[in-house]
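Why predict the complex rather than its parts? Because the way molecules touch one another can change local conformation, and only a joint prediction can capture that. The input here totals 592 residues.
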Amino acid sequence: MAIRLEEFVGIAPRRRRPFTLGEWVDRGTVFSWLMMAPPILFILAFVGYPFCYGIFLSLEDRPVAHAGTFIGIGNFIKEAHDPVFWQVVRNTFVYTGVATLLKMVGGLGLALAMNQDFKFKNIIRALLLLPFIVPTVLSTVAFMWMLDPAFSVINRVLIEFGWPKPGPSWLGSPILAMCSIIAINTWRGLPFYGITLLAGLQTVPVELYEAATIDGASGWQRFRYVTLPILQPIILIVTLFSVIFTFADFQLVYVLTHGGPQNATALFATYAFDIAMGSGQLGLGAAVALAMLPALALLIVAITLYLRKKS
Amino acid sequence: MITGYGPIQRTVRVWLPVLFFLFVALLPFYWMAITSVKPNSELYSMRANPLLVHAPTLKHYVDLLTTTSFMVWTWNTMIVAVISTAISLVLGIMLAYPLARINFPGTGLLAIAVASVYLVPQPLLFIPLADVINRLNLGNTLTSVILTYPTMLVPFCAWLLLGYFKTVPLELEEAARIDGATRFQTMRRIFLPLCTPGFISAGIFAFTLAQNEFLYALIFLTKSTVRTVPVGVISELIKGDVFYWGQLMAAALLGSIPVAIIYSFFVEHYVSGLTSGAVKG
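Output of the joint prediction:
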């Protein structure tokens, strides 16, 4: 066979074509970076720059509408001597920890309850997700009314059952106020856990349960040794996401209690807001907000490492 | 799957927990609805049964729509949510497409960076951003929130789409490339039309997030004419210690309806978007 290979592969001398812009743009790397340039520039301008500027602000004494003066870590020293700040730290950790735990356990319960055969499943699933969809501020206003000091429907039902009047002061006592915001956060976040875990449950092969049943496993054992290990990666990632957004929560507390009574429900975000927007101390406010960073950074690194390992 | 139970036992086992969760999830909405149609005399009466309504009235809705700027806020919220969702989808596609479909050095690292930008919460940025918006003279304009909402929506859309794009088979694009299409043509004509379900998921999510946003809107929008629904409700329907509960509940219900309607049409897309991140990874 006397076919000359060169003709096919193109080794034969080729006329050098002039370099064109179109070809250059069509190269993989060039095309990619041209495509990604606008979103990356946008993120650098509106996330990267404010982030760095926030660090700079936290090192300044900066009253609103005045020029700032550089004071180094002065704001952070002030923070460390502020008892309210430490209360805020405690509040945030309690709020995040308890709410996350409740959402995890409740979400698992919701997923298990939904992972059975019954009628109207799709409609019920859609309804169960509603708390997660509806704007937080609006549902929180409804809870505010349900916990109102004078007309709380919950108290009226309790009194009906013999609770001494006027019933618990849900938003007036420090401990109950904390319980209230935790409960409402759980109410809102539970469907996210539930529906995500439900999707995970549906990936568990039925054969595994059958095999476990034949081996004599009880209901609890099937759950503990078959369901949980398979769900574990999903639980982990959902929890990490939820912890971040609970830790940095603002809306719920701002609307329901404004951080009160006596700062008992103040979180990092609401306290930073009060200092920066209420008292006009932008520098100190930025420093309080930045105090979230170590814990957040740890979580973000954990998530990204996990996602990287998975991909 | 559950065997060895009678029909009654089975009904209890299956329905009791489901109804419990349903009750907890829907109670606040029931309470919103019933409060919004009660006349004030009933709302603040300690004798009437609070769980029922005896003389329903639409007065609170009429008052809300005629004496407050609720309609303006709703309009503002729509504009802001639609435009910022559109911007975020376009920028998100521009970020996700190369990362998912083209091999070049640094894709892995960039994808991780996108995920971590998504995880940066607003409270970390709002103080410096407020200063930036001030210096750009954008205070009290819808532009201020239209520009800042994509800071959370772009990384979010990009992340969601990245996962979706990776599930589309490569062959069609390869065929188009061999036929001489440029990369841009391949993306626009061949690839993007295949990904409509992914855009719907990302779009609904971005839209609900934009409707839900409160912190930036609270800080940047202080005039009634530019406010969004959540900020308007909190700052203007709650006046000092006086609460117009009927109106507030009517506003909460009406404000929730747009999201609920859109969500009800696309609930499957929403659920698949919700779970794709965690399940498929």
